[in-house]
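User: I'm curious whether this sequence folds into something compact or stays loose and floppy. Could you predict its structure so I can see for myself?
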Amino acid sequence: MAVKKKTYDFRCRTLADVSGARRMRRPRSWRTEIARSGTAMSETRSDAYGYNDRNELVSASKLGGSQSPAAEYAYQYDDIGNRITSTDLGTNRTYTANFLNQYTLISNLCDSASLREEFVPQFDLDGNQTLVKTTTGVWTVAYNGENRPVSCTHGVIVRQQGDLR
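Assistant: Here's the prediction. I'll summarize afterward.
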């Protein structure tokens, strides 16, 4: 059984997330190995979140079982809520937005110029982002007349299934 405790501020935003041990069914050999090694499954993990006056996430800390920071995140925004900078797992990024609040340039900042990466998102005439970068690569997205994504292409075509009324 998983134990999960969350702490909220007066605006119902998550401030802390504490997860207890999870007991999961595993094959008998796995349980035997755990019993032999003495590994305990009672570690606790805490996550902390920080917000600014406009309810934008400005910091997050994912803490491991020993309560040492496992991951740190930080974000800065301009006056209308466009992200300006971010730090995710040690990667620093800057964001440039146009007058339509669309990101026109996303740069990974590194000490070495040879490691610096830039991504230029593309948009159709309706303002839909048609070129998207994810952890799996750069995808081309196609939209229907109702501005709903209907296919994503990254080597193979992934089509939207379901109710497209």
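Summary: Confidence is low (pLDDT under 50) at residues 20-28. The longest strand covers residues 69-77.
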